[in-house]
Design goal:
With 509 residues, the chain is an alpha+beta fold. It is built from eleven helices and twelve strands. A five-stranded antiparallel beta sheet has the order 2-1-5-4-3, sandwiched between helices. The protein has a five-stranded mixed beta sheet with strand order 7-9-10-12-11. It has a two-stranded antiparallel ribbon with strand order 6-8. Strand 1 and strand 2 form a beta hairpin. Helix 6 runs antiparallel to helix 7.
Length: 509
Amino acid sequence: MYPHETPPLRRLRGPGSGRIGLRGALALRVLAPLFVVLGTAVWLGLGALDAEVERRMKDEVDLVARALRLSVTHAMVRERDGGVREALRSALRIGRVYGAYVYDSDGALLVAQGPTAPDESPERVVEMVEVGTRVGEFGAVGGRPVYSAFVPLVDEWGRSLGLLQVVRRQADFEDYAVRLRVGAFAALVLGLGVVTLLVLHGHHGAAVAPLRRLRDSMARVGAGEQEHRAATDGPKELADVAVTFNAMLDGLQATTTELDRRRRAQEKLGRELASAEKLAAVGELASGVAHELGTPLSIVDGHAHRLSRSEGLPATTRQRLDAVRTQVSRMEGIIRQLIELGRDASGRRRRVQLDALVRGAADAVADAADCSGVRLELRPPTHPVRVDADARRLEEAILHLLRNALQAAPGGRVRISWKRSGAAVALEVEDDGSGVPDELRARIFEPFYTTKAHGEGAGLGLAVVHGTVEDHGGRIVADRSPLGGARFSVSLPAPLGIDEEMGATKHEP
């Protein structure tokens, strides 16, 4: 393969290319970064949410402790241990409290409600009582990690009565954080899954499907469907690609059509040039032959004519002399046809009646038609038809066509018709003979080409007709006639500016 050639489509689509598809590119360049960003955001958000939840749970414990402080303080002022114990039990019934403990001002444990006893030392309790402020911290009760809220107990006169400790298990904080993280990640995974499905579905409809249709259109064009065009639906960018692709195909098709037209025109020009060169060579040869053979043939014909008029000649000798004159006449006819091939009649044209030329040619072959048993039919137009032509050459061409038809249909029919049709004059010569085979129609107008037996023709008659018609700016076509034989259709330019002919054209059927 040369560097400028386009690789075959199957190689571009092959599995060995090592390229990822649009979905893979979308996943790597869009969905993966999206997942990373969302995952990081959720992770950071969960950290902040954990801190906020922990703060709120601590506030709940502090709120329970502050709520118990009044009832516990009131019971301690009245020295009612039962009231203190009942208040602590009420705190445990809340469900979020693991234990509740009351200390006196010396750090001794007065009342305890919970599964285990606290681990706080009297010294530390005294220290917190003396400080007189609420304290919240993580620690341990009975070896279990907990969060404790310490609230000083003070009577209405400001005297310190002791310390209240409300405890909540640290596992409550951790369990809630785990549930929160699991729920968040589950929601994240579900949301990402839904987003992925929506993105892939939208991507398939917006990009993958139109691209696949465009690819299939390219494959169909590559397979030979030159008239196929890609659909221009889908997103604007892909529709623009399809429109550009179709425009490229239209341009290629137009270029191919123009190249084919030019190639055919060049081939036709080459054939016409070869024919013109052949005709020119034949004309040059004919001119020389006419000068070189014309005089000797005239002398031979003259001597033969005089000898045939001698008295006392045997009948056989006279017949032989007549045969010599016949062959001399035939040779002179061939020489005239050769001269006609190379003759330019552009300077000898005048306006003539086509009717007179056709009737003159028909009269010339009337005897031959009678001898061959051919019925010659003339179909003239309603109004006279005129042409600008070399009358002698055009009548000679019509005569050649009639003779050719008579020879092709012995004992049959020959029909000649002519009329004006718009800006042209049409003349047709038809017969009911065997016709011209399709494979020979392209060559029958070539000089020296003939389908007749040897000695029956030189193959110049139709070549002379073809040259005469083209010299007059017309064209001649051979095809099959409705009569069953051949039909030669001649079209010549009609002269303009003739009122009677224009009127005649309007009345022709």
